[in-house]
Structure formats: C-alpha cells, structure tokens
User: Fold this.
Amino acid sequence: MPATVVVGTQWGDEGKGKLTDLLSKEMGMVVRYQGGHNAGHTIVVDGETFALQLVPSGILYDHIVPVIGNGVVVDPLVLLEEVDMLARKRIDAGRLVVSGNAHLIMPYHHELDRLTERYLGKNALGTTKRGIGPAYADKSSRVGLRVQDLLDAKIFRQKLDVVLKEKNAILAKVYNRLPLAADDICATYLDELAPRVAPMVGDTVGLVHDALGRGEHVLLEGAQATFLDLDHGTYPFVTSSNPVAGGASTGAGVGPRYIDRVIGIAKAYVTRVGSGPFPTELTHEIGELIVDRGHEFGTNSGRRRRPGWFDAVMLRQAVRLNSLSEVALTKLDVLDTFETVKVCVAYEADGEVFHHPPYHQSIFHRVTPIYEELPGWNTDLSGATELGDLPQAARDYVGFLSEQIGVPVRLVGVGPGREQFVRFAA
Assistant:
C-alpha cells in the first residue's frame, strides 16, 4: 500500500498536526520523519488541546502505531515529559516506537545553541535554542550519539568522552563557560532516562516496511515547512533538516516509489517566526488583527508570529519542490471579518517580474509583492460543514488560490476543532 506525506508549504505553523490527526482515521501508522521538539503540533479534540512536540499526531487514535523515525533528533527528557503529559490526559503512548538510529540532543547542544544565538547578536537566526541545529551538526560531523547508544552504557560513555573533550574546549575557550561533567550527563541519560526510553526503541524501518507489505496505509508526517528546509528554504533562516517531501524518504527509510500522495498544508494567509525575509509581511493594524484572530503565537516558544497575505509565488515553488498532489488550506475563518483580501501573485524587483522565488537571496530580500485583491465574505465560517455552507466569496477565494498554484485545494479548515473543516470537490 503506498504512503502519504504531509508537508508544510510555507514557514511552518500551517496546521500539520490537525490534518495528520484527521487523516489518521484511515491510517495504520504515522511516522514523524525529521525535526525535533522545536516543532509544535496543536490538536483540539472535544474542546481539549493537545500540544505535541515529538510524538506523532496519530497518537490520539488507538489503532495507530506512532513512530519517530531515524531523521528526527530526540531530547529524551522532552520525549518522556510528553509521554507523561499524554498519560495524564488518558492517552496511552505505549504503542510509540522510536528509531534506534535517531540522534540524541545532549546538554552541550542546548548550551551551544543558546550561546551561538547570543553571540550572533543582530544576525541571530531566531532558533528555538533547543539544541536542534547543534545535534544535526554533530550528526553530519559523525560524532553524534544515537538513541540506540542509550542501550549500551559502555558505548555511550566512550562516545561521550570523545565528543565532550571538543565541546568543553569550545565552551571554555570561546564562550568562557564552565565545562560539562561526563559523570553528570551519564547519571541523567543512562541512569534516569535510558530505562524508560529503552522499551520504545526499535527497528522503525522494518516496522514501516512490514506495515506497507501488509497493505496498511502509512502517513509520513513532516515538521516545520518547505521554506525552512535546509536546502530549499530562505537560508540561513532555516531549520537544520529537510522538511520537504523528499526528506520523508531518508528520514523514515521509505523509497520514493512507495509514496503516491503528497498533501501540502497552507494557511489562508502566511506567518513566520523569527528572522528572515517575508515579502507579504503586514506590519500595521491588519497584521495585528490576523495575529489576534488567528492566535498566532508559537506552540512551544510562545513567540508572536509575523503575519502576511497569502503568497502564491511561494506555493508554486512548494508544489514543485514537493510534487504536491493537493493542498489542505487552514484557518480560512481568520479572514472572516475583512472587507477585501489580497493574494500575492508575483514579485517585482529591478523591473523584472518573478512568478517563482528568485534563486539569489539579494534579489529575494528586496522583492515587492504584486497583489490581486478579492472581495471578503464578512461571514462567520466556523459552523460550516459542507461546501454549500461557505459564502460564494469564500469559495471564490479558495478557487483563485487553487488556480494560482496549479493543484486542487481538497480540504479547508474553518476552525481549530478536529471536525471543523469543509471538503471541496475532488
């Protein structure tokens, strides 16, 4: 049975968790394939909010096997805190399987992330300071510790001693910080965390392929989004992994021939957190209204998100990069009160018009958006359950977006609840 990928198409926070939760009804397994606990997925079920960081969104269904793939970086303390949170909400996380090949976030990763951002000053990247980037850097440098190392104390200590020698030298000589003690790290990771993590560790590649072989539907869940991708995003204001659909193959161990459906998630407007270029950013009262109505604050960090009008130029590029088969549009209801809404259909810079983002960052940083203005609908959409419940102006807006990006919009979100969506015709 082929696999489905869910991928963000903007700068994150598009509502991937809600869509994954919705799709999980028809899935047998949900696999998180990249990122770390810098990604927050919020799901509202019967009025109760679940803020997930590492555990795949499918955990809320009893029939789902939730998997953390090899492409994820795992802070075991955060993982266990999340498992405990779910237990308090009467959600059994005993089905969770974590790849032994996933890399661990260590205390020195947290420390170096915080210090690096501080020393960059006005050039800071706007990271969540949770050790994600340094963990991925160690993975690429081949000095990282992996989840499976928690199962062998001797190997864990040997690897830790090697890498800590370098990290402590950097902390002391570059940042004037006290060294970290290997004994303290081992006491936490091996004595306290490893016994609880060990039952979760497994061969996730084997599990995924066994499920596919049985004809089960497998959902591959990305974190962050296309324009935070390390290769294809607005570098250097990006994450440290590959959220694009191609990252699902490496991050979950699934070859591309197994994937036949790629669903892109987009907000009916755009937001981003932290630094970086943003052609359609709204810095006046309209932007404030979007932030207020959309509750645009980070699930994990609490940081205010920067708002802007929908950017079809970005979405066309996301269609290319991910081979999107369709789009799910979220938060259409946030635009309910606007007399008119705008859509960026192209960029202009130096007299040249761009229908896809210019490859050179110097040009991208100074582009001016070219807008099409559409009438608003001035109607509360939160109670809509069928296409006919949407006013014509709202349907026209969605149809216009679909025409601009070249793939169909199949699903439209009209509120935060699990069932607050409208299906468009296939």
